[in-house]
Amino acid sequence: MKKAIRIITSFVVLICCCVGASVITTNIVNKRSGKVVYVSEQGAPYTTLMHASMPAAGRNQPVDLTDAAEKTVHGVVHIKSTIKGRVQTYQEIPDIFEYFFGGRPRQRQYQSQPQVGYGSGVILTKDGYIVTNNHVIDNADEIQVTLNDNRVLNATLIGADANTDLALIKIDGDDFPVVPMGNSEELKLGEWVLAVGNPFNLTSSVTAGVVSAKSRNIGIYEGGESIESFIQTDAAINMGNSGGALVNVNGELVGINAALESPTGTYAGYGFAIPTTIVKKVVADLKEYGTVQRAMLGIEGKDVLAMRQDERNKDVDFGDAIDGVFVVNVTDGGGALAAGIKQGDIITAINGKKVKAMNELQETIVQYRPGDKVTVTLLRDKKEKKIEVELKNSRGNTDIVKDADIDVLGATFQDVPEQTRRQLNIGCGIQVNSVKNGLMKDVGIQKGFIILKINDRQIKSADDIEQIFKEASSSPEQVMIVSGVYPSGRRDYYVIRLSDD
């Protein structure tokens, strides 16, 4: 929803949030296929369809979807997110002459333009908790919710998770209509589903289709910890449906609509939703902790089927395994290493649930928290073994990850992903998870920035930031000099003045 990137391509995938005249849609490149991907929306309704799974004698009986539509349309809301224009400061790197003669970076200011975007959300509780896509509300200064009865309410961000593209917001009030939570694991291929949302700002729209595939990975999210295990449906999804509901014929929520794949930028037969197996866990964590407690198995893996098809792996002994996850590497400090899982093992199930591919493994593990124990079924030397593994967080322990939020700074923080630490070769630091109105946004600090030092002191946790903030607030200078690095490798520093004097 932010920067527009022009990419010449023959196929397009679309990000679910619909944008106004002053909003820019985000294009994402699918690294596997070279397609451009947007994350996104839904189309027009029809309510009586033939049930293909019925026996021959009953196939002429229509499936009545009117009850499911009526139950859910009131629990799906329209979301307007606004990023205000503001004066931002950035550092100019001194030229080579100034550099050698002690020149310091100069500060420049510019006025950014306001941006407005639109999407959908699903009311989960009567007291106003709403789930939507992270990209719908990312970096928003104001979030406005319009209910199906045309009431307009301001919403507060509770927490967001870019790795699953989910966010939790809240509106004040009670007795709101809700969409009951269903179980996406019970979905069958060919089962009818409804997509409810606000395509092209057309509120309360319903479309119907079938479940085309499950556990689909389309490669639209960046980052080593991003999780993709979409429900694929042919229910029409268009711009503005991001964050809307995918429901079964009983009107139960089975997914959050997130993406479409299209050669034109509008619906062309492929829509994707985040399953409730992921949604339930992420929403519970955001509500309780403000950030996701992400459990890690502690392996790097590849799909056995894909590896078998690669000529470069012709010397690898897969035994009789046709699918599963081949363990390419066991990470240091992880639960898998401690439990005795080895490189070359083939994981076939978690707690008895079969896993055929890496995205299915991720979808299963994301339902647990650090400290939970799971039974991993694997093949080693063509023999089946079962190993109990205690899952850990990205720092190799089972502690709860705190989400420090010092109001005046206007930012939340998280541990730096292990993969990012290795890429940047850093041993400390804490990453900015989100930036709201506050001093950090005012000086130009952006989401993803990794804080390495503040006032020349190393930062190892969010508690360090809070401690230095308290010390700086009571000091005569009341200044925090923040230095660090972005995941791209660009280093920067910012001066935060805690006093207006």
Structure commentary:
Helices cover 15% and strands 36% of the residues. The chain has ten helices and 33 strands. The longest helix has 14 residues. It starts with 11 loop residues before the first strand and ends with a strand.
What is the tally of helical segments?
10
- What's the helical proportion of residues? 10-25%
- Averaged pLDDT, please? 82
Shape: globular
- Major sheet attributes: 7 strands, antiparallel
Low-confidence stretches: 1-13, 19-60
Q: Could you state the oligomeric state of the chains shown?
A: single chain
As a whole number of angstroms, the C-alpha radius of gyration is 24 Å
What is the rounded distance between the termini?
Answer: 37 Å
Secondary structural class:
alpha+beta
Strand content: 35-45%
Number of strands: 33
Write out key terms for the chains shown:
15% helix, 6-stranded antiparallel barrel, 7-stranded antiparallel β-sheet, alpha+beta, globular, 33 strands, 501 residues
